[in-house]
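Sequence only, no structure available. Ideas?
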Amino acid sequence: MSENSRLKTAASSRYSEEEVLFEEEEFELSKKAKYWLYVTGGLLLVGSLYFFTIFLPAMFIPESVELEGISKLSELGVTLIPLAPERVQQLGMPDQAVIKELGEVELGGDEADLSDESTNASNLQKSKVERLIMIGDIHGHYKEFLKLLKKINFNRKSDHLLVLGDFITKGPDSFKVLDFLVENDIDCIMGNHEYYVLQNYAQYHGKKSPYFRINSTETSETNQRFTAKDNFNQDPEFLLAKKLNKVHVKYINQCSIIKKLGLVPLHKSKNSGTSKFAEGIAVHAGIRWDLELLEQNPVENLEMRSYIGPFYNETTDDPFEENALSWSKYYNKKQKEMNPDDGLVVYYGHDARRGLSFRRFAKGMDSGCEKGDQLTAMVIWNEVGTSKKGKKVVLHKEVPIQVDC
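Reply:
I predicted one. Tokens follow.
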């Protein structure tokens, strides 16, 4: 090998070694640099976790609240004052001819002395209102709800409004309905869909599941075990539950399962207009005929549609189940047998498939607004009348009023 070749080879080797040393020096980090790199990366990771798990959820997920016991039985806090016929006309209540077009429900009254109402001790402790208005399943149909309130000339100062459950879910404006009920302090019955929403709410926020209570100190753990659906992120009730704020939850939570209404009209079928009165209650789905009110199973009160034969002391939400019979039909029959003159009148919703069903002791008011049919209100009032002997009497009256959905 010539001298020039050896020099070139040596130079090339020297340059290669220098490149390697240069490359090693270029990518080698000091311990101090590595330390700060790790610290910076850790801070970025912690910051990202905080941003996505705490900061963003706090912006979009409302603060949660613990659920309280759902009251199994409560009492209406108002009583009806007898109205003069002139006042009834001012309120625009329909006449009897209009009522007959809607079914069996007709105007009626009794000949009880007017003073009996005013001197009742329990009534003296309650607020006085002109009308009790109950509305069946609204299901988030806010526009139709307001339309119905306008049609009946609702006045929150002189009327008492009670919604019979399922006022949210399914329809387009659940939050508008809910906000209206909250802002106007509207009375409510718990529906099965409100109960399901509370279950989803508790599941989502890791809270105790909904439970039932008899009074402020005694609780009844009769709620069924709740399991979230596999497709819960597509479940409308789960999606609604995620958006509820504390005020919404507290309102739904205070709706009772059954509410005692006091005296309501008691009509005979195909009655010409005169009738007696009896104690009434409101519930979402129905009650067992063979149990006292405090013995009822709240889940059955929320979900039943039928009794199961042959003894009809079991319930089902499936009207097509073998030996199933409409609970209201059998209940009405048993009340006529056992208490024909002073039975318990039940106002309920839930059963849109059977639609309006006005029996003497059971009055179904879910008229299928969610299916595009009607939304129904039952308006109850007391009216001053005169007996044949010229004595002032109280007439207990009611009328269903509807709007199209």
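The first strand starts at residue 70 and ends at 71.
Hope that gets you unstuck.
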